[in-house]
Each structure stands twice: as C-alpha cells, then as structure tokens.
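Pinned message: reference record for LacI family transcriptional regulator
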Amino acid sequence: MDDATGPDGQRRPAAPGVVRMRDVARTAQVSTMTVSRALKDPGKVSADVRRRVEEAVRAVGYVPNKLAGSLSSRRSNVIGLVVPSIENSLFASTVQGISDVLRQHDHQLMIADSGYSAVAEEAAIRAFLGQRVAGLILHDTTHTPEAVAMIRQSGVPVAENGTLTPTPIDMVVSYSNFDAAKAMTLHLARLGYRRIALVTLPASTNARSRDRQEGYRAALAEVGLPADPRLMLEMPPGLASGAEALLRLLEGGAAPDAIFFAGDVLAIGAVLECIRRGWPVPEKVAIAAFDNIDLLAHLVPPVTTLRLPRLEIGRRSAEVLLDRIQGRSTSRVSIDLRFEIIHRAST
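Predicted structure (tokens):
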C-alpha cells in the first residue's frame, strides 16, 4: 500500500510538506513499487537499487508509515526516548522520571540506545516516527541534519534533556554542562589548587564532554590560571580508565595538585588506584567528580562532586512534552534545573 492510501483503499491528498513514497521514487529514479519492495524486502532488489533508495530516503527525509492499513492517520500513546547508552546507570533516574509521569497520563515509553552515535540516533528517530509516536525525548542535543529535518517535517513534539542547549529543536529541560564544569573548577581554585587537571570522556562524539572542557577552560581563564594541555585528558569510560588517567597525569612531568573527573566512574577508578598504592587523597592529589552516584559518598575519602537533578529532568521532560501533545502549550520551552556542588574530604 502506498503511504498516500488510507485503510479504506481510497487515496488521500497529501498534507502540505509531507514526504511521500513517490518523492523517494523520483529522487532514486525508480518506480514507487520498486521503492516499496526495497523498503519491505530489500533482498528482492539489486544492491545498486537498494543503495539508491536508501540514499533517497535520507535525502528527502522519508519516514515509512509502519501503521499503514491500520489507524495510520492517528498518533499512538507511545513516547520514544533515545539515550546514548542503556548500560550507563546514570540515565536510569531520568528514564524513571519520564516513565513515572507518562504512566500517570496513560502514555507508554519506548527506549532506544544510540551508542553515542548520531547516525544510530537518526535511525532510532526514523523508526520511532514510523511507529507514529506521540512525541520524542532525546538525550543528545546534537543531531544529524537528516534527523532534525525528519522531526520538523513530522510535526511531532520533541524535548531534549542532555544539556541546556541554546538552540533546541523544540523544547529543552536540563542543566548547563558548561556552567557545572566551570563551577567545579572555580571551586577547586578557591580551595587553593593551582594545577587543576580535567579528565572527560572522548569529546568527538559527546557534546556534553565538549561543554565540560569549555567550562573548565573558562574557569581557568577567570582566575588567571594557564590552560596546560598536558593537564587535559580524554579517556574511554570505565574504572580502569580512571586509574590510567591518574597515573598518566601524576607521572607525566606536569603533575596536577587536583584532578576533576567529568565522570563518576572515572573518579572512582582513580580513588581506588590511590588506595591500592597507598597514596593519600587529597594530600597526594585532590579528586573531584561530576555526578553523585551513591558510591562516591562511601569511598575513603568521600569524593567532592556535583549533584545533578536527573530524576527531575526526566519528570519535567515528560511534563512539557505532554503539555504540548495535549495542547496546553505551543511556545518553545527552556528549563534550567541547575546543579549543586557537594564538598567532601577528597578536596
């Protein structure tokens, strides 16, 4: 069935701006039947035709209607959520907050994992829109142009919540990663530390890491401290990476007096390595973290960190999305839920 055909077999006029299968066919220079076959049963067309159709789908922003022949003109009561990693427990509170609010309003949550890849996020968004979700919640705030075009073309409301971006697609509920990293770096400087190192996750695929690096540099500039590139590391996630970062910094010829780990697991790995080697914290080196998972308060010493309102971010993200879906709000929304520095004995 072509996507312009209703469940009764009668063709409907296309809504303004809606991309149809025939637009894909025109771009790929094949018939609509060939497009339908390539999308539903790719093995029945040649590799060249499949490639042309896939490229055309991306170029025009086409989203196949997976509900065609059913209630294709209606939205579901499902919200699509894309997070960078299902494995990372830091997202659990946000997911719980979203789910709690949606359940109270007879909506359900469907979750996809992008693996920190903008291309994978785009694929998840396409799949969600094909299922006619009522709205989208995206943790990331940087997206492929094709993903943004699909969302805008669909008219589906979207809330982003990974950081307080100044240019949201629609609505944003979060805190500023830039401000949080700047505040922690200034906190360390005010405690008297002068060689403050920063360890983040790789920034090439993580806008939040880039924001944290920029906030760190801004704080150093504000207090007149040099930004020594030897004191900045990017590490993959994990306890072992935190331990490795600690050793590389302390043995690299430009030893810091404090290390700000912009990731809790990295910070825990560093503290455990200090314990293993008998290095006192903060006498050998001060250690600060970025989030406030429970273990940080129970290490010896307990670790200075930032408390982030992850549960509230989830709740408010769902609330603003439901307000838009149910017609209570039409304007763009930007909500800053801030953060709190928790000072402990590690600094």
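Pinned by admin. Summary line: Residues 1-15, 69-73 have pLDDT under 50 and may be disordered.
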